[in-house]
Amino acid sequence: VDPQRPGTLVVTTMDRWFPRDEVYRSTNGGASWTAILSNGLLDNSSAPWSVARTPHWLGDVEIDPLDSNRALFVTGYGLWASDNLMAADAGDRLNWRFANEGLEETVPLDLISPPSGAPLLSALGDIGGFRHDDFNASPAMSSYFASNRTTNTSLDFAENNPSIIARVHWGNSRGSYSSDGGMTWADFGSTLSAATDNGPGAIAVSADGSTFLWLPKGSAAYYSTDGGMRWKKCKKSPTSPTDFRTMWPTADRVNPSKFYVYDIVSGTVYVSTNAGAKFKARASGLPIGEGTLRAVPGLEGNLWLPGGTAGLYRSGNSGSSFSQVTGVQEGYQVGFGKAAAGQTHPAIYLWGKVRNVTGIFRSDDAATTWVRINDDQHQYGWINAIIGDARTYGRVYLATGGRGIVYGEP
């Protein structure tokens, strides 16, 4: 309702997906209504990717109580605003702009930072994903994944051949790959029934890019050596649950023949030394149902596992055994970035609890000491992934549970 103009109000529809939701305006207390969105001029320039989304989920609409010309409404992906609302009095078209800077509402589910090409690529709920070449602007349309702009659940790159990237999603093929660092994509030539029926799950790429290891929901793992044209079932692979939990396959970042799967149901790590053809159970008794197993770039067989309230675990023998990291009380996500000067182990980034403080931490000396890099006013809610930049020491990326991608630098 416009407090300055009695009888003037706006209202939205809800959940009308096609052609889009609508905003209606009345100046006579609701006796008659005029549609003011469908014939409006929509300016997507602040976020080019949003042109692929129709305004939907219009959960709220407001007229600025101090400016009768200004109206705003929310959607499932950001905020729209108009500054010429009263132009509707003369039957003119309204100008609507996507006023979303600093109000990101995306849900990144996975992030990667390859050692060459774009410094960051993302897998996002609903929207799809992007190459992020410029952190000072919303990605250009050329950086928006060209196919399957549905929910993307996982992506990975070949550590020693980073132009090769694979991702899985809810598109018809359930998976796609790129051989040019994510600039162009091709869908897998065949899909897996479990991915179609239960969900795409997660994927890993061998260090040389020759093998993709796919673990759909409710399925054992499958591997492909021809870019997803054909898939073979991995022998003795654990089976991913069909519920909300994600079981992640992990590629060794040095040896292209090694893959790992942390079974979140049994607390066992399974290891393949023949590029996914067959797995063997190795370390057991690990925390059940916890975080993503990560392999360390440049160090064959080095693995780190966040164990929730049980702390943080590491292996230096390709998953045959794990030891608990001293000084970390809780671990929820872990990732790696460029090493500090004079250090051989990559910088470690942790979302967890150290010295009775829950926060985001960095270690430059292989977890001997930790420094907190956030504060109590900046905790960001649930974090789906935390990774460091492969080329810029100290830069860390957070995949938040609904507040977009946050990055920090010293």
Structural write-up:
This protein is 1% helix and 36% strand. By secondary structure, it is mainly β. A five-stranded mixed β-sheet has the order 4-8-7-6-5, with no helix packed on it. Strands 12-13-14-15 form a four-stranded antiparallel β-sheet, with no helix packed on it. The protein is elongated and about 75 Å long.
Q: What form results from the Cα inertia axes?
A: elongated
The radius of gyration is 24 Å
Q: In what order do the strands lie side by side in the largest sheet? A: 4-8-7-6-5
Largest sheet: 5 strands, mixed
SSE layout and pairing:
Layout: E1 9-12, E2 23-26, E3 34-35, E4 41-43, E5 61-63, E6 71-74, E7 79-82, E8 95-98, E9 108-112, E10 120-124, E11 128-132, E12 152-158, E13 161-169, E14 175-178, E15 186-187, H1 193-198, E16 202-205, E17 212-215, E18 222-224, E19 232-233, E20 249-251, E21 259-263, E22 268-272, E23 280-281, E24 294-295, E25 303-306, E26 312-315, E27 323-324, E28 328-337, E29 347-354, E30 357-363, E31 371-372, E32 383-388, E33 396-400, E34 405-408
Parallel strand pairs: 4-8
Antiparallel strand pairs: 1-2, 2-3, 5-6, 6-7, 7-8, 9-10, 10-11, 12-13, 13-14, 14-15, 16-17, 17-18, 18-19, 20-21, 21-22, 22-23, 24-25, 25-26, 26-27, 28-29, 29-30, 30-31, 32-33, 33-34
